[in-house]
Amino acid sequence: MMSGMGDRFFIEGGVPLAGSLAVRGSKNAASKLMVASLLTDQPSTIENVPMSVEIDITRELCEKIGSTVSAVGDYEIRIVTPKVTTSLVPELSRKNRIPILALGPLLHRAGVAEVPVLGGCPIGHRPIDFHVAALREMGVEIERREHSYYAEAQEIRGADIAFPWPSVGATENVILAAVLAKGKTRIENAAVEPEILNLIEMLRAMGAKIFADESARRIEIEGVSSLGGARIRVMPDRNEIVSFATAALATSGSVCIEEIEDRYVKAFLLSLSEIGAGYEKEGNGIRFFKKGPFGPASVKTEPHPGFMTDWQQPFLVVLTTAEGISIIHETVYEDRLGYTEDLRRMGA
Hints:
Layout: E1 2-5, E2 8-11, E3 18-22, H1 27-36, E4 44-47, H2 53-65, E5 68-73, E6 76-80, H3 103-110, E7 112-116, H4 129-137, E8 141-144, E9 148-152, E10 160-162, H5 168-178, E11 184-188, H6 194-206, E12 209-213, E13 218-222, E14 231-233, H7 238-250, E15 254-258, H8 266-275, E16 278-282, E17 285-289, E18 298-300, H9 312-319, E19 327-329, H10 340-345
Parallel strand pairs: 3-15, 4-14, 10-11, 18-19
Antiparallel strand pairs: 1-2, 4-6, 5-6, 7-9, 8-9, 11-13, 12-13, 15-17, 16-17
């Protein structure tokens, strides 16, 4: 039983979770697809868009720039930006990490851009050094102001970019800047998360020329002169898949998550096999269930295709019910283990 009071929840546990559900579209993917639509004056339709704060903030950004965003069905939006009415958006009512990705589209459309400093979850130091360095290599002049980033570019040109770390945001930023740039851009040590491939899928549908080699972490983009609109479906939310799966396992339940593919959560499934958790294909989804006592596991968070940093918290909760000693090594964000103090207070 659960009731909400503001941002507080009261939960009465002890009941195994059982049933079937379909997870929402990925907010992390949907927000990037909305930004990609800014690259053209033609309309785009995005399906399977979740209702979330992340989408609300991105919508506010797009509408301030000059976009018309309208609902055309359940979880489906139409977005069109016939003209950029302003490319200077130094502040929004709320913060997330999306506005920095609008720099490329705005520079292509208007030549100048200003977006707010980044917000987001308090999980550790999340600098944008890679974003700035890469954009400068592509001919962008960018400076940090008190509450915003200001950028100018007479012409964005292709460049060879090699990231020291496969940064998701920086990879997305370069892709969005490169699709209309002059010449060819090559990204080495690129992030290749499924959400990035969803973005590439949309850009290709818009007319972009992009080659992605996932195993080599290499993405190549040949700039084109213009892009059109597209229809695209947002991929399932990988974090929701893992959240519901771990909730079922931690409560000794059995839950089927519909309309998902194992390619989205391969590393998670491997870790489930390691602890002896049950999962199996069922129809167009996957059923997760407890088939016996859990054993210990050793997990290291890594960029895709490794074990995603967002998954370690719910998976650690399952490990508190496992026999033996498990190890979680968080390598991405240094402040992402603070919640363990609360688990200790609960007896873990």
